[in-house]
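Our preliminary data section would be incomplete without showing what the modeling component actually yields. Below, a chain of 230 amino acids is followed by its predicted structure, encoded as tokens that our downstream tools consume directly.
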Amino acid sequence: MQYFEIAVKLITGMIGILVFLRIAGKAQMAQLTPLDTVSAFVIGALVGGVLYNPDMSVWHILFALAVWTGFNLFIRFCMRSKVLRRLIKGDSVYLVKGGAINFKAFKRNSLEMEQFRLLLRQKGVFSMFDVDDVRFETNGAITVSEMGKVSDSYLLVNNGAIVDSSLYHCGKTRQWVLRHIKHYGYDSPTNLFCMEWTPNKGFYLVAKNGDVTRGNEEIPVEDIAHEVLN
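Predicted structure:
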């Protein structure tokens, strides 16, 4: 009877975790943010604790998973706030910009040069002479822009909100973004699902109703020169 009970708990736990992943979203299966890492540890502890504790039943697994799923969804709802999203999820930073190493970013992320070189080799880059920009993503991976290749693209608007970190990286201001949003026929960032800008290529905008706008037309530099960061 005890073996049967363990099997039922195990199957229930597996089904519960699959349901959790479906509700929380498929994105976390592709990348691990700090919140996803915590979720993995907590879920493992919940299922493992109930599985090997004869005093706890299948209903304890279901209750624990239900509470954790609800709390996880609440945290994700709170992440709609830019401040909380940055605190919980973190932000991508440039480890290398224009071939120059950002020592502050290395120290802040407790990253050593040998670790960094390992990450570069995993991307097929074996020399710093080939590196132009390197961005350290929130999931611990790096994005490498090699010398002579196309410049990065920047996510200027995400789910109706202007992404301040992207403005910092590309050297633009909120006013610059707002002018281009209006230039392409939208009233405000809240009308957009996303807005991407790729230097020398143009803009890619997706409205919340699904409409897609592509354009390589920028407002003349002389009209917004005072709004571009130096």
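The two ends are 72 Å apart (CA to CA). The CA atoms of residues 94 and 135 lie 4 Å apart. Preliminary results of this kind motivate Aim 1 of the renewal.
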